[in-house]
Every structure is written in structure tokens, then in C-alpha cells.
Amino acid sequence: MIEFISNYFEHSDERGSFQGLVNFGNWEEINIISSEAHSIRGNHYHKYTDELFIILEGRIKITLQNVLTNKKLGKKKKTFEVLKGDVFFIKKNVNHIFETIEFSKWINVLSMKTNKKKPDINRINK
Q1: Which range of residues forms the domain containing residue 99?
Q2: Separation of alpha carbons 102 and 99, rounded Å
Q3: Does residue 65 belong to any structural domain of this protein?
Q4: What pLDDT, in 10s, does the model give residues 56-111?
Q5: Does pTM surpass 0.85?
Q6: What residues contact 46, with CB distance under 8 A and at least 6 apart?
Q7: Domains contained in the chain, number
Q8: In b/e form, how buried is each residue of 109-118, taking b as 16+ CB within 10 angstroms?
Q9: For the segment 35-45, what is each residue's pLDDT rounded down to a tens digit?
Q10: Which of 58, 78, 107, 110 could form a disulfide with 29 if both were Cys (CB 3.0 to 4.6 A apart)?
Q11: Is residue 116 a part of any domain in this protein?
């Protein structure tokens, strides 16, 4: 459902520091998203696209549920709180809802470029 990613490399010296965040995957699109406190984003899933997130600032509550083959949500719901510095990966077919607890900014990286005419954004009809 979600995989938190640790730095693969870190180095510091008198010039500053270097952190290796991600060294896997084939990524086609990178976005920066910012949201005011108490905003809701997402509440969708992707059939074909995996997503990587890097939290730059803020606090976000994330709720995840697997999407079943009948396009309904699985019964198990998992919730996480992420903070500045967290890096994580959400695979396709996982419905994700981001609720910002405070002003937040993050990098969103997609495994497939968004097709503007037919985006891979799917919602569960209730």
C-alpha cells in the first residue's frame, strides 16, 4: 500500500550536505504541490501510475485503501501521518486521500506522464 523510503546515501563536510533520496524507478513527471491547512487532496487512485512523494514542509494525514478488481474499496483502511523529510511510494490501485493538518508542500513524482485528455485519475463511485 505504502512504502517509506530511507536515504540511500548521506554525506556532510564543511561545504554542506548531500542526501540521496531515490535511486529506483523510471519517472516521467515531477510536480510541486502546496496546500493550505485543512485541505483535502486526492481521494482517487491510478490504474497504471505509481507515485513517489517527498514532503518538503508541513504535516499531512494520508488515508489509503486498496482498490479491488470490482472497482470497490477494500475493507482495510490504513492511515499515516507524514512530515517534512518523509519520502514514500504509493503503488497503483491504492485509493489515497491527503488531508493537510497544516500548510504543506511536497514533490509528487509519477511513473507515467499525465495524459491531459484521459488522465489516469479514477474515483470510487459510492
Answers
A1: 2-110
A2: 9
A3: yes
A4: 999 999 999 999 988 899 999 999 999 999 999 999 999 999 999 999 999 999 99
A5: yes
A6: 92, 93, 120, 121, 122
A7: 1
A8: bbbbeeeeee
A9: 999 999 999 99
A10: 110
A11: no
